[in-house]
Design brief:
This protein has helices at about 5-30, 60-80, 85-110, 130-150; strands spanning about 35-40, 45-50, 85, 115-120, 155. The chain is an alpha+beta fold and about 160 residues long. The chain has one domain (about 10-30, about 45-50, about 60-155). The strands form two sheets. A three-stranded antiparallel β-sheet has the order 1-2-4. Strands 3-5 form a two-stranded antiparallel sheet. The protein is globular, with a radius of gyration of 17 Å. One of its GO terms (molecular function) is aspartic-type endopeptidase activity. InterPro entries: Peptidase_A8 (IPR001872). Keywords: Aspartyl protease, Cell membrane, Hydrolase, Lipoprotein, Membrane, Protease, Transmembrane, Transmembrane helix.
Length: about 160
C-alpha cells in the first residue's frame, strides 16, 4: 500500500477526533437549546440533539443509521483497495469516512442515541449541523469533482 493510500485514513482520523472534541465542548458548555452568537446575523452555535438524519429525517432510526455508516466505511475501504485514487479523491473519501464515523459514534455512545449539532447560519437559514455533516458534504463534492477531472485508475 503506497503512501497516498494512507491519506484518506489520516484525514478521516483528524475529522473524527476534531468532530468529537468540538461536540464534547458544545455538550459541556452549552445547554441543549441554548445558543452563542459567533458573528451577529450570520452564524451562531446552537446546541441541539438530532434524533434523525439530515434535516431530522427518519427520527430515532438509530440502527439504520449505524448500518449505513458501517456500509460507508466498508465502501471507502473497498474503493481505496481496488483503485488508485488522486489526492483529491483520497481527501474526499477521508472526509466522508471521518464524518460517517463521527456521527455514528454519537448515535452509538450517546445515552439518547442522538447526534450533537451546533452550527446555524442565519444568512441561509440552513438546519443546524456539525463538523461531521460538513465533512460528508465536502467529501462528496470533492469526489464528484475528482471524478469529472479523472485521474482515478482501476487496479489490476
Amino acid at each position: 500500500m503506497g503512501k497516498q493510500k494512507w491519506l484518506l485514513y489520516v484525514v478521516g482520523l483528524v475529522v473524527l477526533i476534531a468532530d468529537q472534541l468540538i461536540k464534547l465542548v458544545v455538550r459541556a458548555k452549552l445547554a441543549i437549546g441554548s445558543a452563542v452568537i459567533v458573528i451577529p446575523g450570520v452564524v451562531e452555535f446552537t446546541h441541539i440533539q438530532n434524533p434523525g438524519a439530515a434535516f431530522s429525517l427518519l427520527p430515532h432510526q438509530v440502527w439504520l443509521f449505524v448500518l449505513v455508516a458501517i456500509a460507508v466505511v466498508a465502501a471507502v475501504v473497498v474503493v481505496n483497495t481496488r483503485f488508485r485514487l488522486s489526492a483529491s479523491a483520497q481527501v474526499g473519501l477521508g472526509l466522508l469516512l471521518g464524518g460517517a464515523l463521527g456521527n455514528m459514534v454519537d448515535r452509538v455512545f450517546s445515552p439518547t442515541h442522538t447526534v450533537t449539532d451546533y452550527v446555524y447560519f442565519y444568512t441561509i437559514h440552513f438546519p443546524v449541523f456539525n463538523l461531521a455533516d460538513a465533512s460528508i458534504d465536502i467529501g462528496v463534492v470533492l469526489l464528484i469533482l475528482s471524478t469529472f477531472r479523472g485521474g482515478n485508475d482501476a487496479r489490476d
